[in-house]
Amino acid sequence: MSGPAIAAAPAHRKVGFASGYLLLGLGLAMLAVMVVVTVLAPWIVPYNPTLTAGISLAPPSPEHWLGTDIIGRDILSRLIMGGRTTLLITVVAVTLALAAGLVLGLVSGYLGGAVDEAIMRILDVIFAFPVFLLAIAVVAALGPTIPNLILTIAIVYTPAMARVVRGPVLSVKQWDHVEAARSIGVSDTRIVTRHILPIVISPVVVETSLTLAQTIFTVTALSFLGLGPPPPDPNWGGMLSESRQFMELAPMTVIAPAAAIVFATLTFIILANGLREVLDVGSRR
């Protein structure tokens, strides 16, 4: 490699880290806003989100900052409480998928052989179906309740998580320090938890952030189709479904939940890109 190219590489990496920290800071700030609003939702909503608070399809006003829906419920109150429901489903479902994916990926990658083959073939069956279609089928079969929705999303995203974990494990388990630990009789459980998991966790963190963004779309899409939490409890997808035929008369009924969905999705995408730069996941892979 020539001299200028060698000199350019550290500068390019510094720029990448700087932009990564900016993205990470922006993502964390946006996430902090969502967390605060979600946690304090019951105390900051101006009206009961399930009860009529004004006239039907009222425009934004000092009493109702975002207006009201078709039956006079305050849109801002429903937006805040709907975000609480949507984000709760998203976070719990992705946490379950992450836990299952970590266990399956670590066991499959570390043990290899017949165990790896059996686990991956089972996951391949699930992975072969489009995520959204599989989610529709499972929720329709189990029923549109919050626990069933969480279970469904956890199932459909577990194979992707397991694959992200398994790939690095196949490589890391052959590294010298792992072989040395194995040669002196260190247990497999300790090797996996102390010598392999800390190394492969970086791509898992990035994948988790991206999966959170994808899950928000999945949850809202299922709710839009009537497969989400049952009414009258609000959720962003359900608000879009209820308001789509009135968007010309009261555009805020559609703009507000759509903007919330975009904001939440962008938060996790920006966070994932910042984490990728800061953790240098591409170089490690």
Automatic annotation (TrEMBL):
<keyword id="KW-0472">Membrane</keyword>
<dbReference type="InterPro" id="IPR000515">
    <property type="entry name" value="MetI-like"/>
</dbReference>
<dbReference type="GO" id="GO:0005886">
    <property type="term" value="C:plasma membrane"/>
</dbReference>
<protein>
    <submittedName>
        <fullName>Glutathione transport system permease protein</fullName>
    </submittedName>
</protein>
<comment type="similarity">
    <text>Belongs to the binding-protein-dependent transport system permease family.</text>
</comment>
<keyword id="KW-1003">Cell membrane</keyword>
<keyword id="KW-0813">Transport</keyword>
<feature type="transmembrane region" description="Helical">
    <location>
        <begin position="249"/>
        <end position="275"/>
    </location>
</feature>
<keyword id="KW-0571">Peptide transport</keyword>
<feature type="transmembrane region" description="Helical">
    <location>
        <begin position="21"/>
        <end position="45"/>
    </location>
</feature>
<keyword id="KW-0812">Transmembrane</keyword>
<feature type="transmembrane region" description="Helical">
    <location>
        <begin position="204"/>
        <end position="229"/>
    </location>
</feature>
<dbReference type="GO" id="GO:0055085">
    <property type="term" value="P:transmembrane transport"/>
</dbReference>
<dbReference type="GO" id="GO:0015031">
    <property type="term" value="P:protein transport"/>
</dbReference>
<feature type="transmembrane region" description="Helical">
    <location>
        <begin position="87"/>
        <end position="110"/>
    </location>
</feature>
<dbReference type="Pfam" id="PF00528">
    <property type="entry name" value="BPD_transp_1"/>
</dbReference>
<keyword id="KW-1133">Transmembrane helix</keyword>
<dbReference type="GO" id="GO:0015833">
    <property type="term" value="P:peptide transport"/>
</dbReference>
<feature type="domain" description="ABC transmembrane type-1">
    <location>
        <begin position="83"/>
        <end position="272"/>
    </location>
</feature>
<dbReference type="InterPro" id="IPR050366">
    <property type="entry name" value="BP-dependent_transpt_permease"/>
</dbReference>
<keyword id="KW-0653">Protein transport</keyword>
<feature type="transmembrane region" description="Helical">
    <location>
        <begin position="122"/>
        <end position="142"/>
    </location>
</feature>
<dbReference type="InterPro" id="IPR035906">
    <property type="entry name" value="MetI-like_sf"/>
</dbReference>
